Amino acid sequence: MKQTKWTLLMLCGLLIAALTACGQSDGKANKAAGNEAASSGKEPSKSMQDVKIVLDWSPNTNHTGLYVAKEQGFYEEEGLNVDILLPGSGGADAMVASGEVPFGISYQEGVTQGRTQGVPLVSIAAVIQHNTSGFAAPVDRGIKTPKDYEGKTYGGWGSPVEEAILKSIMDQTGADVGKVKFVNMGEADYFTAVKRDIDFAWIFYAWTGIEAELRGEPLDMQYVKDYTDKLDYYTPVIVTNEKTAANDPELVKAFMRATSKGYEYAIEHPEEAADILLKAVPDLDKELVLASQKWLSPKYQDDAARWGEQKREVWQNYSDWMHERGLIEKELDTDKAFTNEFLPE
């Protein structure tokens, strides 16, 4: 039963992760990634080690560093022939935890939920240092603060985390989450849903927010991290499983050396990095990718000493918040949930 519960929660979390690509209703990016368009064109030597990393969702600018590391030959320099895959029906977390693949893209919520139920995931890098998600509404809805959520309709995916976060930030402004109407958005993207039957939704600004700017549809946005430090959690993260970390640490270090170079390149060269992502996934919208990459590149490392660095207090704060609200049944063993030991110095 515990495993079933974790899987259901993980799938809800994957739906939240889908917000990074909710502006893409046609699924073309999935097709492009499935065709492995990210190939560098270089022939791996016979001594190369085949390695797979599975994404959390459709390719987008959260993932640029991976495509850069592949295209620029950083993985090849480490003796790795890396395939970037889309998640299977069980999701990225399940694929990594089972050992089907050694690496994946996840999020702090999923790792926390999984580990408290015995799932052996370990976060080895924060892709972005601070939470760029929040609740967004078209400006004509007059939603300037969480107090304004009262009497409005929220479009979500039925995850218990959604209502818990809304309640958490509304409580701070003396607002009542009970006065919010919750509806399931289904397969509709944000832009369709706000024109149809909702007033606001949870988005990642780096993708959907930037798309709104390009569409000329301005948003009012409340970032969840601005209301409490406990909600400034890592999303997304790169994960491995305990067995890989313990039995093949040199593989993990090599993979992270190359991946770090990929994200560092994207930080320093956002336009060139955007071109690499577009080359890998040509059906993505060029204008959106470039604008998103320029916005997101400085946020990969932000105020951290190095890209990928994770702080214990971030893991502790969010897991405490989840436990206080009954989203996890027991406290997280924080020191086993993440590590910085595989990041290059």
UniProtKB/TrEMBL annotation:
Matches recorded under InterPro entries: NMT1/THI5, SsuA/THI5
Gene3D superfamilies: Periplasmic binding protein-like II
UniProt xrefs under Pfam families: NMT1
Listed PROSITE patterns: PROKAR_LIPOPROTEIN (PS51257)
Keyword Plastid: no
Signal peptide limits: 1-23
Occurrences of domain SsuA/THI5-like (ranges): 60-273
Alphabetically ordered keywords of this record: Signal
Annotated protein name in UniProt: Nitrate ABC transporter substrate-binding protein
Highest classification ranks of the organism: Bacteria, Bacillati, Bacillota, Bacilli, Bacillales
